């Protein structure tokens, strides 16, 4: 592996009390080496994530290093923390399903416990934070980086948490916890996973299929409600949520909610058009990601032929785009894997295999951050690093399903 040295810190700004005074930051500065075999690159990638992005079981998707950050990974844009966290949970879930190594199960358990902490920090059963930080005072990034809705925790004094959950994070929680329950968790953790989805999805059902926040009002992107106009994608995500909750808990209320959404509100028909195909410039790879995770759950958990046909129609619309998609985005190769796993069709081409084998290195770059203070803002130059947890997920998911050769 080749070391990637951190560029020297040009200046320390002592006037800003929240900045770290030490040049020592996160602990790993050796990135995956593209000249090494893929399986070694993945081991290196896991080491970077655990060393630089691990925040009490949650995974920070982007971390800012000192002097703009602190000497622990709590500074950075955190709106998408749940995505990276869920991706690494799915990675270790499938890794454990292959290796049966207790260390891999313990790592998956620790990430699941991190997701549980995102509920506990809010103080309300079934309400989840996007992210959390152990700090008594507001950190500078809360005011300036994407998503400013931070709260001081009353349930966990000394913590702050980010609210306004959205349907994509709903998908992250439900899909990853379901796979953890299915492939990895021991009996106590299976019960804990079922209880978690019971509280989470149950709260959404009780609020008429809306994600609601601390104030009881619907979040900005929390509309899966049959009484409000919403996107077909959100119909798909809500069906996935109640289907998974029924699978894990066995409670009739979720099957009843599922049937009500289908029979009364026609969600199964509505979801078919989740994929926007035309005009092409309106296609959204992020929406594809949420749909892929939802369809992966629904097409494995649903056994009614009529409903399976409708979900397959949705998958076919997505495949119309995916089969020739540029696979440069880190989750797009996973779309091909999901389609192959769900359909059994031999669709993997040499082009796809090249992307399955390509582990694009972690991105660390230099940026100047405008940090607010009592007398205006101060520019501070620091490194920011991306977690790339989806690439690790792709590898272990592909290994489990026989799409990636362990000798690569």
Brief descriptors of the model:
14 helices; 408 residues; mainly alpha; 12% strand; three-stranded antiparallel β-sheet
- In terms of DSSP E residues, the strand content is 5-15%
Taking all residues together, what is the mean pLDDT? 93
Q: State the secondary-structure class.
A: mainly alpha
Rg (CA only) = 21 Å
Order of helices and strands: HEEEHHEHEEHHEEHHHHHHHEEH
Amino- and carboxy-terminal Cα gap: 16 Å
What's the number of extended β-strand segments?
10
Strands in their spatial order, largest beta sheet: 3-10-9
Largest sheet: 3 strands, antiparallel
Q: In terms of quaternary structure, what is this?
A: single chain
Flag low-confidence runs.
1-24
The percent of residues in helical segments reads 40-55%
Shape: globular
Continuous helix count: 14
What would you say this structure looks like, in words?
The chain is built from 14 helices and 10 strands. It has helices at residues 38-52, 81-99, 102-120, 141-144, 167-183, 187-206, 232-249, 252-263, 267-270, 285-301, 305-322, 332-343, 350-357, 389-400; strands at residues 54-55, 58-59, 62-64, 131-134, 150-152, 159-162, 210-212, 218-223, 364-373, 376-386. The strands form 4 sheets. It has a 3-stranded antiparallel sheet. The model is unreliable at 1-24 (pLDDT under 50).
């Amino acid at each position: 592996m080749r070391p990637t040295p951190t560029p020297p810190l040009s200046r320390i700004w002592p006037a800003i009390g929240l900045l770290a005074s030490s040049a020592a930051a996160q602990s790993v500065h050796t990135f995956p080496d593209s000249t090494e075999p893929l399986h070694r690159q993945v081991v290196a990638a896991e080491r970077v994530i655990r060393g630089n992005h691990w925040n009490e079981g949650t995974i920070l998707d982007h971390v800012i290093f000192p002097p703009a950050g602190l000497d622990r990974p709590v500074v950075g844009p955190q709106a998408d923390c749940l995505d990276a966290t869920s991706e690494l949970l799915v990675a270790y879930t499938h890794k454990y399903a292959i290796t049966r190594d207790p260390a891999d199960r313990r790592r998956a358990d620790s990430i699941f416990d991190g997701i549980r902490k995102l509920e506990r920090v809010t103080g309300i059963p079934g309400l989840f934070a996007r992210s959390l930080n152990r700090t008594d005072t507001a950190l500078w990034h809360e005011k300036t980086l994407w998503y400013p809705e931070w709260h001081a925790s009353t349930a966990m004094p000394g913590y702050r948490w980010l609210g306004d959950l959205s349907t994509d994070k709903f998908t992250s929680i439900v899909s990853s916890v379901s796979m953890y329950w299915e492939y990895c968790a021991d009996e106590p953790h299976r019960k804990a996973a079922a209880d978690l989805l019971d509280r989470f999805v149950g709260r959404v059902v009780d609020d008429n299929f809306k994600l609601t926040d601390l104030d009881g009002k619907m979040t900005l992107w929390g509309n899966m409600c049959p009484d409000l106009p919403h996107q077909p994608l959100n119909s798909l995500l809500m069906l996935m949520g109640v289907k998974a909750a029924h699978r894990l808990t066995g409670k009739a209320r979720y099957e009843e909610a599922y049937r009500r959404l289908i029979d009364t509100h026609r969600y199964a028909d509505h979801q078919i058009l989740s994929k926007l195909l035309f005009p092409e410039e309106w296609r959204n790879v992020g929406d594809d990601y949420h749909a892929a995770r939802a369809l992966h759950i629904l097409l494995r958990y649903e056994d009614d032929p009529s409903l399976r046909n409708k979900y397959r129609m949705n998958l076919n619309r997505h495949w119309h785009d995916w089969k020739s998609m540029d696979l440069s985005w880190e989750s797009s190769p996973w779309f091909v894997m999901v389609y192959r796993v769900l359909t059994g069709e031999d669709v993997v081409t040499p082009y796809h295999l090249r992307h399955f084998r390509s582990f694009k290195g972690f991105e660390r770059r230099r940026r100047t951050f405008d940090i607010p203070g009592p007398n205006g803002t101060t520019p501070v130059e620091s490194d920011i690093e991306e977690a790339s947890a989806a690439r690790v997920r792709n590898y272990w998911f592909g290994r489990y399903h026989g799409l990636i050769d362990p000798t690569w």
